[in-house]
């Protein structure tokens, strides 16, 4: 579904990704863990080219999005993204947040967009918040709306950029529950996270990144239970 | 002093002042509207990543912010527009062109600041949903930016209202023009100038209240 080959990304002089290779298969939940500054968020943001790709290949559904001529908007309709800081549109109601892109981009008519939005809100447990504004919601509720907003485009894959890192501890659970339910339905997900419990329980595969490389990858039981790389061992000993 | 006021002369000219103040308001409203459109494009142009898209707006804003409005009015009325049309245009045309261009330059900076004040995550969220740069700008960024721009836009409108008095220099019959007319004919000074000062004051106070009201209604997201 997504194939990354020798991906490099530099910000000026600073090389953040130094040659990343990986494959995301359909229906897989891939969790990306690693210390801050390891390049995991940058890696994720290269998958829908929110960051310009310095060199290498990122092939999404067979299209190399590193190619400057590619129609990014079209690719992005299929690749949903959930941000650490939610990034809901503060001047719009929850319902409008969710229906805006389907209406403007997919040209879905108002009625069916609204119907789908209400369905998605039910799914994330926020049926009663359709007419609320983002600043009236808690962090956990905002993030669930953000997930519903991404789902409204019917993406083939969802990217999560530390979706629970900006949340108060008591709200982490409600967001992870929604993500677990999505995983169970077979949604393809790439999740950058510090929630080791989630990675272990829900992840089909875990990538450990450090210093701009994928240092180690494997099934969660293997990577958490018996890490091979010294840096992985070191990192896990600090966070577990 | 109050007893020395020539009420008779004032009442004779007052209808002209009223006529003039209507023109003042008309010119201000039209120039603010055109200025907003010019400012929107110039402001967005200045934010472009392409140097050739920034070039013209940068020159435009630089010139109109860096030279006196009074000089701009004279230049446009007596030099630029006659060179284009072959004859001196009606003062109303020159006045609107000069004030709009001047307002547009300042409003461009207001737009630029407003757009830049919106969190980068808003654009990223919109783009990640497949919206184009333009769709994101018009549906997500500008509606939020405009709310934050209301106070400086209100200021600009007030400035413009007052600065329109400079148009008396090209004999545009706005309120200051009639005050000068009265002063010239009657050799009075207090009566015409204090009167129109109060008229301007009333209008700017009303405008300030209007902006406050709009801020309360649409502001703070």
In CATH, the topology of chain A is named Rossmann fold
Number of strands of chain A: 10
How would a crystallographer describe the biggest sheet of chain B?
Answer: none
- How many H/I helical runs of chain B? 8
Summarize model confidence as the mean pLDDT of chain B.
Answer: 95
- Class inferred from helices and paired strands of chain A: alpha/beta
CATH class bucket of chain B: Mainly Alpha
Q: Write down the domain tally of chain B.
A: 1
- Helix fraction of chain B, binned, reads over 70%
The sequence of SSEs of chain A as H and E is EEEHEEHEHHHEHEHEEHH
Taking all Cα atoms into account, the compactness measure Rg of chain A is 18 Å
Q: Give me the count of strands of chain B.
A: 0
Category by helix and strand content of chain B? mainly alpha
Broad CATH class of chain A: Alpha Beta
Spell out the key features of this protein.
heterodimer; A: 240 residues; alpha/beta; Rossmann fold; 6-stranded mixed beta sheet; 4-stranded antiparallel beta sheet; 9 helices; 10 strands; globular; B: 221 residues; mainly alpha; MetI-like fold; 8 helices; 0% strand; transport (chain B)
Structure description:
The complex is a heterodimer of chains A (240) and B (221). By secondary structure, chain A is α/β, with parallel strands linked by helices. Chain A has a single domain, classed as 3-Layer(aba) Sandwich (Rossmann fold), CATH 3.40.50. In chain A, 38% of the residues lie in helices and 25% in strands. Chain A is built from nine helices and ten strands. In chain A, the strands form two sheets. A six-stranded mixed sheet of chain A has the order 6-7-8-3-9-10, with helices on both faces. In chain A, a hairpin with a 2-residue loop joins strand 9 and strand 10 (213-218). In chain A, helix 3 (94-104) crosses helix 4 (110-123). The longest helix of chain A is centred in the C-terminal third of the chain and has 16 residues, at 169-184. Chain A is globular and about 55 Å long. Chain B has 221 residues and is mostly helical. Chain B has one domain (2-218): MetI-like (MetI-like fold, Orthogonal Bundle). Chain B is built from eight helices and no strands. Chain B has helices at residues 7-46, 51-66, 69-85, 91-116, 120-128, 133-163, 175-186, 190-218. The radius of gyration of chain B is 21 Å and the shape is flat. The model of chain B has no long low-confidence stretch (mean pLDDT 95). Chain A binds chain B through residues 48, 50, 72-74, 76-77, 79-81, 83, 85, 87-91, 100-101, 104-106, 135, 146, 149-150, 153, and chain B through 119, 121-122, 124-132, 135, 139-140, 143-144, 147, 221. Chain B: Pfam families: BPD_transp_1. Chain B: The chain crosses the membrane at residues 20-42, 63-85, 91-111, 193-211. Chain B: This is Amino acid ABC transporter membrane protein (PAAT family).
């Amino acid at each position: 579904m997504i194939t990354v080959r020798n991906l490099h990304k530099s910000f000026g002089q600073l090389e953040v990704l130094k040659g990343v290779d990986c494959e995301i298969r359909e229906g897989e939940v891939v969790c990306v863990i690693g210390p801050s500054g390891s390049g995991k968020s940058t890696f994720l943001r290269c998958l829908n080219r929110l960051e310009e790709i310095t060199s290498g290949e990122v092939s999404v559904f067979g299209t190399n999005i590193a190619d400057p001529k590619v129609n990014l908007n079209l690719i992005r309709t299929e690749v949903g993204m959930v941000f650490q800081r939610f990034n809901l549109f503060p001047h719009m109601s929850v319902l409008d947040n969710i229906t805006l892109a389907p209406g403007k981009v997919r040209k879905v008519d108002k009625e069916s967009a609204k119907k789908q939005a209400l369905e998605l809100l039910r799914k994330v447990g926020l049926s009663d918040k359709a007419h609320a504004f983002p600043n009236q919601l808690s962090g956990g509720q905002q993030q669930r709306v953000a997930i519903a907003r991404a789902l409204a485009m019917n993406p083939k894959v969802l990217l999560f950029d530390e979706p629970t890192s900006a949340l108060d501890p008591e709200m982490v659970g409600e967001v992870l529950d929604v993500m677990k339910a999505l995983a169970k339905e077979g949604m393809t997900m790439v999740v950058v996270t510090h929630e080791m419990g989630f990675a272990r329980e829900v992840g089909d595969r875990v990538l450990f990144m450090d210093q701009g490389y994928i240092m180690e990858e494997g099934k969660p039981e293997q990577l958490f239970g018996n890490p091979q790389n010294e840096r992985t061992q070191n990192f896990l000993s600090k966070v577990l | 002093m109050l007893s020395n006021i020539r009420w008779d002369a004032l009442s004779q000219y007052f209808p002209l002042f009223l006529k003039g103040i209507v023109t003042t308001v008309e010119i201000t409203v039209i120039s603010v509207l055109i200025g907003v459109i010019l400012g929107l494009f110039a402001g967005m142009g200045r934010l472009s990543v392409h140097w050739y898209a920034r070039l013209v707006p940068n020159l435009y804003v630089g010139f109109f912010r860096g030279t006196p409005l009074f000089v701009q009015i004279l230049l446009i009325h007596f030099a630029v527009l006659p060179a284009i049309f072959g004859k001196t245009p009606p003062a109303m045309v020159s006045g609107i062109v000069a004030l709009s261009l001047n307002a547009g330059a300042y409003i461009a900076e207001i737009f630029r600041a407003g757009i830049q004040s919106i969190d980068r995550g808003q654009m990223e969220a919109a783009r990640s949903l497949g919206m184009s740069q333009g769709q994101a700008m018009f549906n997500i960024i500008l509606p939020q930016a405009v709310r934050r721009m209301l106070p400086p836009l209100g200021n600009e409108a007030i400035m413009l209202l007052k600065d329109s008095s400079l148009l008396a220099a090209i004999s545009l019959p706005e309120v200051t023009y009639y005050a000068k007319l009265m002063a010239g004919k009657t050799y009075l000074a207090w009566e015409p100038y204090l009167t129109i000062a109060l008229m301007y004051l009333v209008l700017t106070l009303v405008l300030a209240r209007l902006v406050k009201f709009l801020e309360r209604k649409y502001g703070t997201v």
